[in-house]
Amino acid sequence: MSTRQLNEQEARECKTEQRSYLWGFGLALVLTLIPFGLVAFADVERMTLWLTIGGCALAQVIVHLRFFMHITLAKNKREDLLLVLFTVLILVILCGGTLWILFDLYKRMLPGMMP
Amino acid sequence: MSSGNTRALEGNSRHPGLNLGPAHAQEEDTREEMVFGFWVFMMSDLILFGLLFATYVTMLGGTAGGPGPKELFELKSAFIQTMILLVSSVTFGMASLALKYREDKARLVVWLLVTLALGLAFLFFELKDFHSMFDKGGVPSRSGYLSAFFSLVPLHGLHVTGACIWLVALLGQMAVHGLDAPVKTGILRLAILWHFLDIVWIGIFSLVYLGGLS
């Protein structure tokens, strides 16, 4: 069993990183409770509700990327950020294209399939 | 959060995700390649999930007279699963920090076991959910909507199952070989998978459960 003795700087770093995970947890918790609370208890107009759910989800994804997966805007991390952003671009094209084509089809030919 | 201290930490990073730092210098180069490669795989997995999300949305209207989201889903159960997965993400973070700063096997193993227990609890509640859906007539073959649901949500559950098996395998490897370099890179990559699955779950609970019940 090798329990390493931490020097002063490492101990400080460890504290900072621990606090960073807890910050991430707190923010994610708030961003989860808001949409669940609205759906469970509040009587909000549908479009506002959907936009709030979407906004909270987006914010929570960013919180997770920043605090749990350590993807940041730091200069030497540009490659990972580029990897994530490029994937998001592909995703937007594929998903957006799918939804656009199919809902256009539904509107013109299958009105019963519109949710 | 952006104190000079954190910035100094980020300045030394060699690959995305948590970096183990100079105390674990051994095989740093291979680790860099393996972790980045795993990120590329993770992103291709994200595209797969993204397209299943798109399929689900296009099938929202295709219930074919069968049960829809309001009849099938329970908000409470979705909330329990969300909380379990969120807490398990944090406990895995604590395990990563135990590895990085202490190289302390006991503490690392305890956090990993807590994470494993939470992962299994998540799977238990998810299966219970599917069971009650089946009882209400919500089987995959009932409608296009349910087929889309059962290709999206259980795929995430399957990923969690895989991650749990991987976690058990890593614990076994650690018991036999100790905390050597392959085990360390294994934990780093599993951490990425675990946090990634939590991100996919954000999409599922927001779009499928909250969107369906509102």
TrEMBL record, chain A:
Entry annotated with the keyword Cell membrane: yes
Keyword hit for Transport: yes
Transmembrane segments: 21-42, 48-69, 81-103
A Pfam family hit: COX4_pro
Keyword line: Cell membrane, Electron transport, Membrane, Oxidoreductase, Transmembrane, Transmembrane helix, Transport
InterPro entries associated with the record: Cyt_c_oxidase_su4_prok, Cyt_o_ubiqinol_oxidase_su4, Cytochrome_c_oxidase_bac_sub4
Gene Ontology CC: cytochrome o ubiquinol oxidase complex; plasma membrane
Subcellular location: Cell membrane
Primary localisation category: membrane
UniProt topology in membrane: Multi-pass membrane protein
GO molecular function: cytochrome bo3 ubiquinol oxidase activity; proton transmembrane transporter activity
GO terms for biological process, alphabetical: aerobic electron transport chain; electron transport coupled proton transport
Functional description taken from the UniProt entry: Cytochrome bo(3) ubiquinol terminal oxidase is the component of the aerobic respiratory chain of E.coli that predominates when cells are grown at high aeration. Has proton pump activity across the membrane in addition to electron transfer, pumping 2 protons/electron.
Subunit structure: Heterooctamer of two A chains, two B chains, two C chains and two D chains.
UniProt family annotation: Belongs to the cytochrome c oxidase bacterial subunit 4 family.
Protein name per UniProt: Cytochrome bo(3) ubiquinol oxidase subunit 4
Native source organism of the sequence: Kushneria indalinina DSM 14324
UniProtKB/TrEMBL annotation, chain B:
Sequence intervals crossing the membrane: 36-58, 78-99, 106-125, 145-171, 192-212
Signal peptide as annotated in the record: none
GO molecular function: cytochrome-c oxidase activity
Domain Heme-copper oxidase subunit III family profile: 34-213
Chief localisation class: membrane
Keyword presence, Transmembrane helix: yes
Stored Pfam families: COX3 (PF00510)
Family matches, as InterPro entries: Cyt_c/ubiquinol_Oxase_su3, Cyt_c_oxidase-like_su3, Cyt_c_oxidase_su3-like_sf, Cyt_c_oxidase_su3_a-hlx
Intracellular or extracellular location(s): Cell membrane
GO CC term, one of those recorded: plasma membrane
Region (Disordered): 1-26
GO biological process, one term: aerobic electron transport chain
Keywords, sorted A to Z: Cell membrane, Membrane, Transmembrane, Transmembrane helix
Membrane protein topology class: Multi-pass membrane protein
Subunit structure: Heterooctamer of two A chains, two B chains, two C chains and two D chains.
Family: Belongs to the cytochrome c oxidase subunit 3 family.
Purpose: Cytochrome bo(3) ubiquinol terminal oxidase is the component of the aerobic respiratory chain of E.coli that predominates when cells are grown at high aeration. Has proton pump activity across the membrane in addition to electron transfer, pumping 2 protons/electron.
Entry protein name: Cytochrome bo(3) ubiquinol oxidase subunit 3
Organism: Kushneria indalinina DSM 14324
